[in-house]
Amino acid sequence: MPQTTPLIDLTPDQQIRLDRQMEFLREMDKLKSVLRGTKLINKSRRENSAEHSWHIMLYAAVLAEHAGPDVDIARVLRMLLIHDIVEIDAGDAPIHGHVDHAAMELKEAAAADRLFNLLPADQARAFRALWDEFEAAKTPDAQFAKAIDRTQPPVGNLHSGGGSWIEYNVTMDQIDTRVGVPINRGAPVLWAWLHPLLSNFFAKR
Amino acid sequence: MPQTTPLIDLTPDQQIRLDRQMEFLREMDKLKSVLRGTKLINKSRRENSAEHSWHIMLYAAVLAEHAGPDVDIARVLRMLLIHDIVEIDAGDAPIHGHVDHAAMELKEAAAADRLFNLLPADQARAFRALWDEFEAAKTPDAQFAKAIDRTQPPVGNLHSGGGSWIEYNVTMDQIDTRVGVPINRGAPVLWAWLHPLLSNFFAKR
Ligand SMILES: [Ca+2]
């Protein structure tokens, strides 16, 4: 029987850290079962928050040239990687749904407390700080990350005849407020591309 | 009617680049419909390649401290982000299934030609070079990325009573060759953690 014998022995500290890290990573599997308001472009089913996170990281990598000069794309990618994990406990709040935002914030903070603390303490702090920065949307990195998070659903909806806009009866006014404001703030080039397509789509409805 | 007027006008070059970038990003939605051999830990359904890509990026970020000193995690994340997109055309080849590897390589190269070339030429070249590097598995970044790609399924399977190992009738010998070799090469610390758990699991079968 061939044996791929480990090349090294773990230190006790490595063993403890890996046990915690792997427990966190296993728990993260649950994000694949959190469903969003949006559907896949082929309309076969709702999108889940794990595949959405992958997709917007690809958006950020491909659209990096349209970020401001003070944006660090590697940090943006790390932010987007973890931006939705609180939904494992708190669920997704559809952008066009009716949500009690204060209650949702409390739920998400409790989720962040539980989930990030599955990690070793130093990593829990670092990941939590990155998530807090994303949520606060004050830094250039966070504002670009938020803009990217808002860009993917309309690009898909425009391609699939309206998608979740039809279901939620969305107007151009609402798109302006909920999508246009954050994209225009974090990535004005993307809003300049998206705005005429959206205006045209909603003018025809 | 409130209007979030774009703050800038696009240059003709920006317009052309964004049209292509957005077409590529829309096409990528299809990776969410490529199903893998593995199931979610809760066994509710098969995992798709988009959410798998997200999950292994999280593995890479959390387990970065266990990489060698010459590994650049930001590059590893970019590699993992795109490592599976050829499956949109070529499909997933389950690691424990029976696959004609030469035929699969041709299919994947054709897929890479079509898909990456949806992007502006400079980006098509850069993304393709990164994917080629991952596939060749010669650099420290690619070897760590491959090790991470091989680590996630067994961690899940160990937690769900065997998962795809049962379905594919996998033995410890096969795990040693297909999983142990690449993990031991790219991330020996992870194999030192995983090996005793796997030995124990397969000894009991
Ligand atoms: Ca893979």
Provide a brief overview of the structure:
Chains A, B: This is 5'-nucleotidase. Chain A is mostly helical and 205 residues long. Helix content of chain A is 64%, strand content 4%.
Global geometry of chain A? elongated
Question: What is the helix fraction of residues of chain A, given as a range?
Answer: 55-70%
Termini gap of chain A = 67 Å
Q: Order the strands across the largest sheet of chain A as they lie in space.
A: 1-2
Would you identify the CATH H-level superfamily of chain A? Hypothetical protein af1432
* CATH fold naming of chain A: Hypothetical protein af1432
Please give the number of β-strands of chain A: 2
Taking Cα atoms only, what radius of gyration of chain A do you get, to the nearest Å? 19 Å
Plain-language structure description:
The structure is a homodimer of 205-residue chains. In chain A, 64% of the residues lie in helices and 4% in strands. Chain A has 205 residues and is mainly alpha-helical. The first copy, chain A, has a single domain (13-203), classed as Hypothetical protein af1432 (Orthogonal Bundle). In chain A, strands 1-2 form a two-stranded antiparallel sheet. In chain A, α3 (73-82) crosses α7 (140-159). The longest helix of chain A has 20 residues, at 140-159. Chain A is elongated and about 65 Å long. The model of chain A has no long low-confidence stretch (mean pLDDT 95). Chains A and B meet through α1, α2, α3, α7 and α9 of A and α1, α2, α3, α7 and α9 of B. The structure holds calcium ion. Calcium ion is lined by residues 84, 149 of chain B.
